[in-house]
Fold these 2 entries.
Entry 1:
Amino acid sequence: MLTIIGLGLSDEKDITVRGLEAIKKADKVYLDRYTSQLANATITGLEKFYGKKVIPAGRNLVENEPEQTILKDAKSGDVAFLVVGDPMSATTHVDLRLRADKLKIPVRIISNTSILTAVGVVGLDLYKYGRTSTIPFGHQNINSPYEVLQQNLKSNLHTLFLLDLDPPNNRFMAFNEGIQYLLERRLPKKQLVIGCCQVGSEQQVLIAGEAEKLVKTSFNKFPQCLIVPAKMHFMEEEIVKRWLR
Ligand SMILES: C[S@@+](CC[C@H](N)C(=O)[O-])C[C@H]1O[C@@H](n2cnc3c(N)ncnc32)[C@H](O)[C@@H]1O
């Protein structure tokens, strides 16, 4: 059996009771090490809390050759595959699930909080977001995230930008780099933007302000994401005032 388990966003204690029980029963525990990172946990910390060895799994292991590792182990025993956030949100491990189906391996999914819903803490109505986009590293010739923003604004919808990351190399895009990318593509300098760092953790930082000001502000707390609000309802405005600097 393959159990795909969401870890939530903050640290080892964000796991659900069902998730923890599944890990305790597993013969092997893999951790998706490339799609996101807990705000405040190390692999050693996870191992200590679970009382199990945790095998870090990079993109190649999960997406190119899972039949040699995760799925081979799941064919003969119980495997827990841990994913930061919710395992089927933003990161979709649908491919792994389909490959498991082909090998007739039963799959169970244990959900958890995702950055896609945790940004509700900012106070903008989640119903009023348009398409989410990711700003990748090496984005000089990539315009699609800006085009998504333009489309969303036309429909008066807020935009959540996820920001690229490379956890094994400790490389994370900061929200001010995301703002810089948008300003280079004609985002108005006075546009209100909201930077979000380590959402869902005790160290969470939310900061709102004009793009030209926040582009000069940085926090060494990762992961981070960026929101560009559309026209706000007065209650949204009221809450967002709390994050103004
Ligand atoms: C591919 S998404 C991860 C999706 C994950 N499965 C989930 O449900 O949250 C990774 C991106 O989400 C954003 N992100 C994830 N966790 C975050 C957090 N706690 N605070 C701020 N942004 C976060 C970052 O921009 C990061 O690069």
Entry 2:
Amino acid sequence: MLIATNLSKEFILKEGNGLFRKKTIKNKQAVNDVSIKIEPGKIVGLLGINGAGKTTTIKMLAGLIEPTCGTIFIDDIDVIKENKKIKKFINLISGGERNIYWRLTAQENLEYFGALYGVEKKVLNERIKAVLETVALTESKDIPVERYSKGMKQRLQIARGLINNPQYIFLDEPTLGLDINIAKELRTYVKKLATVEKKGVLLTTHYIAEAEELCDYLYIIDKGYIIAQGTLSELKENLATKIQILITVDRLTESIKNEIDALFTNELIEILYDEEDNKKTIRMIAQKNYTCDIIKCLSSFDILVLEMKLEEPNLEEVLLKVLAGGV
Ligand SMILES: Nc1ncnc2c1ncn2[C@@H]1O[C@H](COP(=O)(O)OP(=O)(O)O)[C@@H](O)[C@H]1O
Ligand SMILES: [Mg+2]
């Protein structure tokens, strides 16, 4: 497990050269007190708008920049103090990266990056075979990358990120600037990294839908602070956003209404009855999904459920609320 605790990063900006312009020093607190956990086989998302502190956080986790304070451990290895040791365990892929050699083939690129990571020749050949297979590039491995489609180039980036067989893989905005179809394809490979390859994946994104589709657990970062975290359903539940259950029934009497009201007395649950055009509906608005309870209650009165609809808030609504300080 990767555990980062209370990470902060302050950048010191020097402006002017002190000769013609007065030298000024400004501090920029990019990340504040961020704690993150990543389990193998899970995709963790760091979601936030531009400038929120995502890249700074992911670079600290990857051991590329040193935090101003805080600790990062991968099992019992200290990422900050034993920086060289961790090269074996992690890899970082940034969206829109240009570090692949276009004149070389996929095979040659991977041989090069494998050597940079000090992967032993014999192991490397096997590894290249496996990662090419993972990203479905085996058949095109001997074609120069410049002849690849955009999607193939992105898949090669993933293969590059796998060349040292890392336990944890960090993806910084992996679908940034990609066409919808290519982004979609890439997401299936990202999913595979966790589910099939059992890597711990940390993904940063400012696309809410991407986080919603991929992540097992989410951290929402804003102005360098984690302002909310949880699984998608936890976030939706905890952030005081209401779920609506709409149930159409065959009959509804005053006494049944009273019984239902008596059962759900919690003040956070709102129940409305609607009897229009012979259509009898119960509308339940609550923070939790009480579908089971209400169905049980209705069936105890022998009431037939004709139709049921659940309207859950989407993550976008939840986040807009959080970012607007509404929670
Ligand atoms: N090397 C740096 N020097 C000074 N400020 C920086 C540096 N890198 C990032 N920042 C600032 O820190 C904040 C967070 O940046 P970043 O982590 O890149 O955000 P994100 O990846 O979420 O867009 C921004 O205000 C950015 O301008
Ligand atoms: Mg960034």
